[in-house]
């Protein structure tokens, strides 16, 4: 049709690999572990969409809940008004999070969750008389969405340099002395441990009394599945505690079972002051995010001291009834099917399959945790990302959806994946990696 032939009207599908323009691949349907393409093929979902469809696709319980909700109560304002599912969802999420993170603020995306968490952190510091603490610290190669807050604290210079001055007073902890390389991993669990000390350099540079919060992804996802060395997050927590700095975990990818525990905070046994989530909260079905923190921090933001009484924060679609219904049905599905811990049961099988690829050509690192994994490929001189991009196209043709970020292939299948499907995924990938050599 004319509408589907006009591929220029919405061209975001091109932008993942600007240097290698491709026609967008069209999906027309999805069910459980598979997408159906416009040419009628089945594609195994190796990435849970964009790291979000943790319960798989178009699951009947979630579909029914959404249909029922839209027919019953399509919308309710979240200011002055409310609806019961918002409170039910908040209570269920609070119960899932470790204490004291039992207060929830609803957003519509990961980027909004990050903006909200940064604002809550700044407001809390001010409310407790620490108004000089205005600096925010992110990390090189951190990804926190594409809002102004997220690109400011995010560690990807390319995502922000076009836009001039970002949030001021932001520093980025070093991730490695060689920004082109991933110091975390390369098969050595201790690698990169020293980089947490970079926070101390920043504290010495600016003085702790100027720093409000540090934000990190417990496992960085979009920049290539960077798994922190043992002790890194504990050490980060300790440095923050010692210096009155709030710690924010961005769990937009790691939340909702990706590592085999409900959240990465459970997996690592480190409790931050704020957590951001989105994606898996509704298993990708409807946009929704949530920020979690303690009552103290939440109340400081919501009611605050006198000078904050006029502060307003929230969104037209905060706690949208359809999103709440989708999230509640998603949580039911996770619980009934044991999906929040399933990655733990499959982790070894996943690891064995992934590492069986190590004899394939051009691989310089393989890393994994829970049901997340990455294969880092040797770049082709002068043609960065070409090899991974070719792998993406080839895999798609062979019936497998993978994600590429730079020269890294990232994998994060829905948590319902079977062992046979894990075998199929790695068999296809083996053939892809040989074919693109
Ligand atoms: N934070 C992290 C860790 C993410 O991975 C993402 C999305 N990939 C975001 C924030 C932004 O989420 P959204 O695209 O929903 O705004």
UniProtKB/TrEMBL annotation:
Keywords, comma-separated and alphabetical: Aminotransferase, Pyridoxal phosphate, Transferase
Signal peptide: none
Presence of the UniProt keyword Transcription in the record: no
PROSITE patterns for the chain: AA_TRANSFER_CLASS_3
Superkingdom as given in the UniProt entry: Bacteria
UniProt-listed Gene3D superfamilies: Aspartate Aminotransferase, domain 1, Type I PLP-dependent aspartate aminotransferase-like (Major domain)
Record-stated family: Belongs to the class-III pyridoxal-phosphate-dependent aminotransferase family.
Protein name as catalogued: Aspartate aminotransferase family protein
Protein's organism: Roseibium algae
